[in-house]
Write a structure and sequence with these properties.
The protein is an alpha/beta fold and 552 residues long. It contains 15 helices and 20 strands. The strands form five sheets. The protein has an eight-stranded parallel β-sheet with strand order 11-10-9-5-2-1-13-12. β15 and β16 (511-516) form a beta hairpin. α6 (180-194) packs parallel to α7 and α12 (364-380) packs parallel to α15 (471-484). It is globular.
Length: 552
């Protein structure tokens, strides 16, 4: 892998959902101390950076995505001094640090919003947010028909008659990005953390922020968003939307790019941007804007060779046209873990208006086999990749959490019709045969914030280390080869003609990846050696739902 390109073009970035990664102080919630204790593990795994979900001061209405102070660490996770120590220690381990930043909205406990509440209608303090009078003779109706991503209306009325906008929970009021103080404040926050050594930011709801100035009603659409932060549909052609993916948002990111460029060391941004088309997504990563963006089309693809190839071609084509690398991802903290998605007999492409809905119980063996193949596919593709904590352990979604432990605000806001995202956020297992599996210290004062399954001991880091057939050792081997092999990382690929149901591509020099998504085994092409396989290659045949890396 070439060492001349900026690090983020090739990077494998490990997502740390801080609440569920490692608990250092025994209170049942992951924290900075826990991350610091596991840096040797991350270094040995072979990742280039960690993305840390929000660690800022927060009332935790949405587990940190409701920020009360962007310059302070929430006491639940540690202190600012500990964050600075983590950044320094991670760098010593060769790991860069990318925290989340949440610019679309703040917490309702943020000093600005509290000042807006106190100041009253029409005040300068309220101008930093989106306050409006209601409709109807007495203003009792919301200003428009916008809906919250978490269910219900996107407006809440105050006792003084004003309504405020919240595209997520009522505790997350939307900022007014037309206000110069808002723009200046976030540029200041970026500098605050860049000066403390962070290497970049993941931008939450990057396609949000800017609203149509007249706040018109939504155009006719099939239904409300199905996942947090997604636009309401993904048509083949871009449809102008009053609060998602507006052209004006790119002015904000061009200014942010200038801030990043003030600092040495190839600082970078990655956008969580849901866009209608690959062309719209590419607009976020033009040369003067952000550096990378998550590839959600890859995550939402079916388990069919034709569909996956189309996603790869569209992504590489559109992003390459603006000089940006692709960034591949299989799971994150907002979606069902892919081991469980792939464990269903039918894995169809899912969209915003037709979201993934599990059909029947998962076949764990099938899901694991496909997840192993998907990992080799993802890590062989040109560009960067994201690993969600626990996917290297093959963790499934915990689909049977008791209702009384569910904490995702989606559960309440949906009227208990949508269980939300807690199933992919269960604390991960490190060692031992019983909960908390090394997530918390032995003398912990509290159980993990979400209960762990009784059978996760065999899936722990300790349980898989040294077992060459384990998911963990597969990831370790793949990441080692990815670093060592000159063909992998940033660059291009060439498709190889293959029977229907197979994906096969060459990356020069001397590397071929094959993935069998069909129902029958196929013979491998001529090759020098098998570098790595997701399963056992017998008699030169690649079995269904398996993948292989070849030296040719």
């Amino acid at each position: 892998m070439s060492g001349t390109a900026p690090w983020w073009r090739n990077a494998v970035i490990y997502q740390v959902y801080i609440r569920s990664f490692a608990d250092g102080n025994g209170d049942g919630v992951g924290d900075i101390a826990g991350i610091r204790s596991r840096l040797p593990y991350l270094e040995a795994l072979g990742v280039d950076a960690i993305w840390i979900n929000p660690w800022y001061k927060s009332p935790m209405a949405d587990h940190g995505y409701d920020v009360a102070d962007y310059r302070a660490i929430d006491p639940l996770f540690g202190t600012l001094a500990e964050a600075e120590q983590l950044i320094e220690e991670a760098h010593r381990h060769g790991i860069r640090v990318i925290p989340d930043i949440v610019p679309n909205h703040t917490s309702d406990q943020h000093a600005w919003f509290q000042a807006a509440l106190a100041a009253g209608p029409g005040s300068p303090e309220r101008a930093r947010y989106v306050f409006r009078p209601g409709r109807g003779p007495d203003g009792a109706e919301p200003p428009n028909d916008w809906v919250s991503c978490f269910g219900g209306p996107a407006w809440t009325r105050l006792s003084d008659g004003d309504w405020y906008l919240h595209l997520f929970a009522p505790e997350q009021p939307d900022l007014n990005w037309e206000h110069p103080e808002v723009r200046a404040e976030f540029e200041s926050v970026l500098r605050f953390w860049f000066s403390r050594g962070v290497d970049g930011f993941r931008i939450d709801v990057a396609h949000g922020l800017v609203k149509h100035p007249e706040l018109p009603d939504l155009p006719p659409r099939p239904g409300p968003p199905a996942l947090p932060g997604l636009p309401q549909e993904r048509p083949r052609q871009h449809v102008d939307h009053p609060h998602w993916d507006r052209d004006e948002v790119h002015d904000i990111y061009r200014a942010w790019r200038k801030v990043a460029d003030e600092f040495p060391g190839d600082r970078c941004f990655v956008a969580e941007a849901w866009a209608d088309t690959p062309e719209r997504l590419a607009a976020y990563v033009r040369g003067d804007a952000l550096h990378t963006a998550f590839n959600f089309d890859f995550l939402m693809s079916s388990w069919h060779a034709k569909d996956l190839r189309a996603v790869v071609d569209d992504s590489l084509g559109m992003l390459g046209a603006v000089g940006a690398p692709a960034t591949w991802v299989l799971s994150n903290h907002d979606v069902m873990r892919h081991t469980s998605r792939y464990g269903r007999t039918t894995v169809r492409r899912w969209t915003v208006n037709e979201p993934y809905r599990p059909e029947g119980p998962p076949d764990v063996e099938l899901g694991t086999r496909r997840a192993r193949a998907a990992a080799l596919l993802m890590l062989a593709l040109p560009g960067g990749a994201y690993i969600y904590q626990g996917e290297e352990l093959g963790l499934p979604e915990v689909e049977d959490l008791p209702e009384d432990v569910l904490q995702d605000p989606i559960w309440e806001r949906s009227g208990h019709t949508d269980r939300g995202r807690d199933g992919c956020r269960v604390p991960i297992p490190w060692s031992g045969r019983t909960p908390p599996y090394g997530f918390s210290p032995q003398d912990a004062s509290a159980a993990p914030w979400l209960p762990q399954p009784e059978n996760w001991g065999e899936r722990s880091v300790e349980g898989q280390t040294g077992d060459e057939t384990s998911m963990l050792e597969l990831y370790r081997g793949a990441l080692r080869l990815r670093r060592e092999h000159p063909a992998l990382g940033d660059g291009a690929l060439t498709w190889i003609d293959a029977p229907e149901g197979l994906l096969a591509f060459r990356r020069g020099p001397g590397f071929v990846c094959m993935v069998n998504l069909s129902a029958e085994a196929y013979r491998l092409p001529d090759h020098v050696s098998v570098l790595l396989a997701s399963g056992t290659v017998e008699e030169g045949l690649l079995a269904p739902d398996e993948a292989v890396w070849l030296s040719v």
